[in-house]
Amino acid sequence: MINKLLDNITKYEGTKFMKLAGEGMDDITPVSDLKSLEVPAIYVHVPFCHKLCPFCCFNRYLFKEDLARAYFLALKKELDMYAAKGFNFSDVYIGGGTPTILMDELESLIAYLRKLYDIKRVSVETTPPAMTQENIDRLKSSGVNRVSVGIQSFDDKVLEAMGRTITTGDDARQALIRSQGQFDTVNCDFIFNFPYQPIETFISDVKTFKELKIDQATFYPLMPSPRKKTAMEKKFAKVDFTREEKFYKILLDELKNDGYTVSTVWCFSRGDHMIDEYIVDSPDYVGAGAGSVGLVNGNFYVNAFAVENYIKKIDQDKFPIIRYRNLSEREHIYYYFLTKLFGMQVNKEQFKKDFGKNIDVRLFKELAAMKLYGLLTEDKENVWVTDKGMFSVSIMMRNFFASLNTLREHCINNKL
Question: What is the domain-level CATH number for residue 75?
């Protein structure tokens, strides 16, 4: 009952992402009077891939070298704009797409980020084929702290069903073995609850991850946009969200109850490691690149998705923001609460500092209901997610990201 209620609430709140205003203008972008605001994280998007995986909802395009090189140049100009407004960042997350698709451009981009900002940590997404020893050495030389390798599954049949034909399960294993120990953190990404994905195969994937002793794994539930969902169901079978809890229970049994640190409800680490989901530790963050989103000082904003449109706006010395929404206080609190629960705890003192009142005043009903059903507990300093509550938070985050994917689909289809 409680999971169904939380499911409906987050779906409703997620529809608001489609209610964005305006063409980007400086007065609605996070670029004025914010020098004193700490914005530690910047996400930088590289949208090019050699092959487009059919399940992926992110903004991505087939690789064309000339366009990609022009894009990297535009990215640097956007970074200049934020630097000129007094922004500084300590943590950089470079995702895609495939950021390692042009290693020389990626190396140059990271060096440029270090020139502009006081960078402490860099995380880069990549694929198994890109993790050659040469590229590992080049990423290390650029000072990359964390690599996140998109595995999805070690099973060749599942990979084929997903359309993930860029690698095999054995190639993925070898890429992880080469990478492990070369960086502060090596993460591998998996998907669960794909239409063609036997439970037994997922158990095998989790066990293989443990046997390889990789630093970290992030397990993403299937969260398709409407068109992606329809396309998958035509090709495979109905997307069955009733199976989701069975998959999730495997993670708790195999990882949480076997000594792994819960970094988020989807991420399990061997010790303390940098994670993909910067929204947990960075309530405010900047998004740079085509199709990136950001949240600064209560402004949620979206960059141009179409690469040509993005480059055109940058060449006009404009921030490439195409849509925005100034969150109401209630919306902002709900977003903050959800992202902190995603990271397993909400600090009471920090909540009061951020919103002016105690959390048990601002969220009295929500806390009471979730504690009544055993999803949350608390002590003097923090509100904690219980083992029982982890799947409930997973449902809410899946809906949150599915709403973002719906927004992405709308912007991509309309070439915004």
Answer: 3.80.30.20
Distance CA 23, CA 309 (A): 13
pTM of the model: 0.93
**CA nearest 298: which of 285, 313, 314, 280?**
285
Residue 52 lies in a domain: yes
Gap between the terminal Cα atoms of the chain? 39
Domain annotation covers residue 408: no
Low-confidence ranges of the chain (pLDDT < 50): 24-28, 33-36
DSSP alpha helices (H): ranges in 180-304?
A: 199-212, 226-235, 244-254
Q: Are 106 and 128 in contact (CB under 8 A)?
A: no
> What's the chain's length in residues?
416
Q: What are the backbone angles phi and psi of residue 72, rounded to the nearest 5°?
A: -60, -35
Within a domain: 387: no
Please count the structural domains in the chain. Answer: 1
- Tell me the per-residue pLDDT of 207-244, one tens digit each, with 9 for 90 and over: 999 999 999 999 999 988 777 778 777 777 678 889 99
